[in-house]
Design a protein that fits this description.
25% of the residues lie in helices and 23% in strands. The protein is built from seven helices and 19 strands. Helix 1 crosses helix 3 and helix 5 packs antiparallel against helix 7.
């Protein structure tokens, strides 16, 4: 199975299945001498882990990471960083009913068709459990970005039809972690939470949108033509389970504007070019312009629902099934750190790639 490695210079390869012995990964290309803040890395994992509240999967995983290589006396050595996260709370029996059944809107059928075999226990490799390894890689990437004063803040901006209409500059993003939904507006967060609880009791699920802002990016990140910065961010986001859409800057709303309205106006402050507006989303020609990079990521409703549905089995018979086990009624709260992690991986990779360009 190809496609398990992400990045060009800063590479993350992940391995493991939802109900296997462990999840893990290898980070290659991390600069030597970086002091790893293990407490910070674990805190990022805690933001993603299941069982942290009543509105997420109740699977009980501590998600404690163990580093196997690439470190000496707490610092990176420049060699591959291997890490492992044990799976401790698998309940494979919850999935026995779908061993021969293809769940609607899951990867069951496509994996079977492509490989001739599938691990039906929790979705195997197709499970969002795989993202735990991305969070480890993203946490290390964040430590590198911190030294360059680059920050990444994602938050839930929509759940179902409940939208946070405020511009991100009107929000106090430090409040994102103050509630279970990870929305920095307390009133909207409470409405979102109530809606998720209501839908969960109905045995159904919700989708939504996560917004992300990258601040402090230097000018010049991005590699035209096919490795534009926004193209790599888009690929990173669309590789996350349940993601159905990505837009940056003005996105789809920009199509209703005239060019005279959409073009960014420039100003100069302390010999630094700045934009008065930022419809470009901090990226022009695929290269960062030094302004905030901002984008939105759309997540579909979770495909596993606790309601009866018609589907087919491996013999192509129409059968009835209903979801069973521990599942998120809405992935948004746990997906916030995943969006940040993938953003960090892209930014560090392009930061390192920019060092190979000599500008005489």
């Amino acid at each position: 199975m190809a496609g398990n490695t992400f990045g060009t210079l800063f590479k993350l390869s992940t391995f493991g299945e939802s109900h296997g012995q462990a999840m893990g990964g290898v980070i290659d290309g991390c600069p030597a001498g970086l002091e790893l803040d293990l407490g910070f890395i674990q805190s990022e994992l805690d933001r993603r882990r299941p069982g942290q509240s009543t509105i997420v999967s109740q699977r009980k995983e501590g998600d404690k990471v163990a580093f196997l290589s690439g470190l000496y006396e707490g610092r990176t050595t420049g060699t591959p960083i291997g890490f492992l996260i044990p799976n401790l709370d698998q309940k494979s029996k919850d999935y026995e009913q779908i061993a021969d059944v293809y769940r609607p809107s899951h990867a069951d059928y496509t994996y079977q068709a492509k490989y001739g075999i599938r691990d039906w226990r929790g979705g195997g490799r197709a499970s969002a459990r795989e993202t735990v390894s991305r969070v480890v890689g993203g946490a290390i990437a964040k430590l590198i970005l911190k030294k360059q004063a680059i920050t990444i803040n994602a938050y839930t901006s929509q759940v179902g039809d409940i939208k946070l209409m405020k511009h991100y500059r009107q929000l106090d993003l430090s409040k994102t972690e103050a509630n279970l939904v990870r929305c920095p507006d307390e009133l909207i967060a409470e409405t979102m939470l109530n809606r998720i609880e209501q839908v969960r009791k109905e045995g159904d699920t919700l989708g939504g949108v996560i917004s992300c802002i990258i601040s402090g990016s230097p000018v010049g990140l991005g590699e035209p033509v096919f490795d534009k910065l926004h193209a790599d961010l888009g690929k990173a986001m669309l590789s996350i389970n349940a993601v159905k859409g990505f837009e940056y800057g003005s996105g789809f709303d920009g199509v209703s504007m005239k060019g005279s309205e959409h073009n960014d106006a420039f100003s100069v402050s302390q010999n630094r070019v700045m934009t008065v507006t930022n419809h470009s989303g901090g990226i022009q020609g695929g290269i960062s312009n030094g302004e905030d990079i901002y984008f939105r990521v759309a997540f579909k409703p979770v495909a596993t629902i606790m309601k009866k549905q018609n589907t087919i089995n491996s013999r192509l018979d129409v059968v009835e099934m209903m979801g069973k086990g521990r599942h998120d009624p809405c992935v948004l709260p746990r997906a916030v750190p995943i969006v940040e992690a993938m953003s960090a991986l892209v930014m560090v990779d392009h930061l390192l790639r920019s060092k190979t360009n000599l500008n005489f």
